[in-house]
Amino acid sequence: MRRRIWADPRLGLLVVIVVLVAVFTALRPAFLDVDLTIVPIQSDLTVFVVVGLAQLAVLSLGHMNLAVGRMAAVSAFAAGWAYDKLAVPLVVGLLIGLAVGALVGAAAGWTIAATGVNSFVVTLALDFALIGLVSLLYSTFSDGVAFHVAPAGMDILRGDTFADYCAGDLCGPPIPLVVPIALVAALAVGVFFRNSRLGREILMTGSNLQAARLSGIPTSRRIIQAHTLSGLLAALAGFLLAVTNGAFSADIGGSFLLPSFLGPVLGGTLLAGGAVSVLGTVFGAALTEVIQTGLNLLQFEVEKFKIYIGIVLLVALSLDRLRQVLAERRKQEVPRVPEPVEQKEGVA
Amino acid sequence: MTTPSLKISFRGTEFTLTVLAVLAFVVLALTTHGSVLHGDTLTAIFQFLAVPMVIGLAQMAVLGVGQMNLSVGVVTGFCAMVTAWLMVDVGLPAWLALLAGLATGAAIGLVNGLIVVLTRINGFIVTLATMTIIDGLRYGVHGTATYQGYSPGLVRLGQGSVLGVPTVFLFAVLVAIAVAVFFRHVTVGRQLLASGGNPLAARLSGVSNDRSLVLAHLLSGLLAGVAGVIVVALSGSVNATIGDDLLLPSFAAPIIGGVALAGGVISVVGTCLAALIVRLVDVAQAQYSINPDWVDLIVGAVVLGAVLITQLRGRAAT
């Protein structure tokens, strides 16, 4: 048992995060500055946690969603369009965006389930088609590249933290108002995969499609549902980024692809499917965000930062593989010791 | 051996693509009152076909083993920058710099392949990571500044033509022929396709799947290097943005050209023809001054359609 805790990637992530925060703070005390770093980190993290969850939703199947950024872009367009042309309230626009994202995700899932084409091929092709569509939509329906809209509540959601709300002398912590949205999403996804029948069946489909089908799980429907969830979460991420940026623009989602894999993969979600880690995704996204902010404060150029993030991903993947190999080896070693006593188990 | 393959090529995707390309060209010529047939326009069409062709082949090489290479675009840019850097800042002669550029591409491909084999991680994710790294390195060569004024001889060669045919296009055709020969007649090339088509059967027949994977990625990197060198010779000035817009074309050409994404089947002719068709869409966009976003949408939709049609056709055949 002790070994398992030691091998838990989440604990490792937490240690690395703490060490990095300490290092960055020692090098640049501004790293712990509330207005300069702490609040922006949380806003960015909100977006990337949800992006990671969007990818996690299909990684549960062993699938990938390469269109995660563009699904966010299309949904953000729909929401922005609704605010601009229909002047809907904040929540209605959000719901419209979520619906569009879920629909696009469902379409991708349906295509994969119906044709049996590899998920990354379908979503890659979808991504290419949506790139053109999104810029076309913006150039046709908006004044150029963005909807600069501010429905009631959006500015508050963007700028305010709980510290701005006081009851007498007691003020809230410096946490942006968008953070609870990501927390709720993470909790919901966690409960979905851990406790709901639907979520368990999706994981089972990802773990072993044939076995799942033979157990009476409607695997095609589960595939569509997982992709719908992915589209829905991508839409939420797009909305959150639009709120943080203050505009619904064509470039939303353009930088989602890499972070979407970084969070879950660093957190120990298997690419092969069948196992997810929501908490790991949150930590993975946090690590990425800490590295980004730290390098930024140390005045690294964006390009150099990319080099490090790529290396981090490669190292994390290699460690993941190493862990897998070690686990397999241990599994092989275990039955060898009690072989004479428990021969039955060895056969099974 | 030649007769059956010839028969297939006249019935299959290649034939359809040839008809499409010719049709598109005729329609373009008629509707623009022959302006695409003018010497300069015609030269430009084929000059700027060279890079999409080679980059399509670079993607095709990895699709042959059922993998993907997301780094082709940035590797092209990086190799172009390295080649220019060697000529301008280091002062190497052009031919040596070109070779070094190709070697850079091949080395990156080798690293991609080794990581894929050693870690057993999906090539897509590995190249997503290396793409990010090389994207950073690409700007590390010379920042956002531009290299120009290197080797006038090389640029003259790159922008010149032989018997009216642009040299870079001729070069791309030679590369395509070499790739075709590699996959058709060279043992390791055949083995590569065997690994892509059915890894288990390939292994049982004594083919090393690991070697096939490494080789495919190496070839892909090398071809991306070739594309980078072509850019250097053709454009006369390079900066770090080169390769940004190459990812979609790299997938579009082989997918439309009928390369099976699951691996095992490739089509050099199909890939080149599809690259030509995508190029003609580009030309049409310029000629009719259509919103360029339409090009991405159309090409993306065609790619999606091609994937589905190939899959459905494959299912009908079995």
Automatic annotation (TrEMBL), chain A:
The chain crosses the membrane at residues 12-31, 37-59, 89-113, 120-141, 175-193, 229-248. Pfam families: BPD_transp_2 (PF02653). It comes from the Bacteria. GO terms for molecular function: transmembrane transporter activity. InterPro entries: ABC_transp_permease. The keyword Transmembrane applies. Keywords: Cell inner membrane, Cell membrane, Membrane, Transmembrane, Transmembrane helix, Transport. One of its GO terms (cellular component) is plasma membrane. It is a multi-pass membrane protein. PANTHER family: ABC TRANSPORTER PERMEASE PROTEIN YPHD-RELATED, ABC TRANSPORTER PERMEASE PROTEIN YPHD-RELATED-RELATED. This is Ribose transport system permease protein.
Automatic annotation (TrEMBL), chain B:
Keywords: Cell inner membrane, Cell membrane, Membrane, Transmembrane, Transmembrane helix, Transport. The keyword Cytoplasm does not apply. It is a multi-pass membrane protein. CDD domains: TM_PBP1_transp_AraH_like (cd06579). One of its GO terms (cellular component) is plasma membrane. Its main location: membrane. The keyword Ubl conjugation does not apply. The chain crosses the membrane at residues 44-63, 70-88, 94-117, 124-141, 161-183, 213-235, 255-281, 293-312. This is Autoinducer 2 import system permease protein LsrD. One of its GO terms (molecular function) is transmembrane transporter activity. It is found in: Cell membrane. It holds the Pfam family BPD_transp_2.
